[in-house]
Amino acid sequence: MGRLFSITLEGNFYSCRHCRTHFALSEDIISESFHSRHGKAYLFEKVVNVTVGDKEERMMITGMHTVNDIFCIGCGSIVGWKYDAAYDKSQKYKEGKFILERFKVLGPDGSTYVVIPETQVGSDADDP
After folding, report:
1. What phi and psi, each to the nearest 5 degrees, are found at residue 109?
2. In a domain, 119, yes or no
3. pLDDT number for residue 49
4. DSSP conformational letter for 68
5. Contact at 8 Å (CB) between 44 and 98?
6. Which domain holds residue 73?
7. Is 127 within 8 Å of 50 (Cβ atoms)?
8. What count of Cα atoms within 13 Å lies in the side-chain half-sphere of residue 63?
9. Alpha carbon distance, N-terminus to C-terminus of the chain
10. Is residue 37 part of a domain?
């Protein structure tokens, strides 16, 4: 397991929905308009308190990417993925960035994102 980092800025961080381990600061959000198989997601510049899984190729709406699933170091839940490589030139900005799925995190105000089955996206996907 990795070292546990604590973000001390009250109300300014995203954390694990299950164990409340801190993941990222609001200021590190690049975009709030991404999607995953379970609904909406955030793109972050950096996250802490996650372990990175094995690389795998994944076809997404914006093309083929090499990604690694990321897991909470507090409870082991999969919380999103890290972009390792993008094959389309227009998607290179994602390399080294992280996706946190909204329904798996608590927002800065402690709120949760609820998945409504009728609105789920059918596969891992991100907005063009």
Report:
1. -95, 10
2. no
3. 97
4. E
5. yes
6. 13-112
7. no
8. 11
9. 34
10. yes
Smallest CA-to-CA distance from 121 within 16, 33, 29, 25 is with 33
Q: Please give, one letter per residue, the 3-state secondary structure of 61-93.
A: CCEEEEEEEEEECCCCCEEEEEEEEECCHHHHH
Classify residue 75 by its DSSP letter.
T
- Domain count for the chain, please give it: 1
Q: What single-letter DSSP state applies at residue 119?
A: G
**Coil vs helix vs strand at 73:** coil
**Residue among 29, 26, 24, 30 nearest 47 (CA):** 24
Tokens of 97: 């960035």
d(CA 14, CA 23): 6
Residue entry with tokens 């997404």 = 60
Residue 68 lies in a domain: yes
pLDDT at site 18:
95
What integer is the mean pLDDT of 98-110?
Answer: 90
CA 124 to chain centre: 12
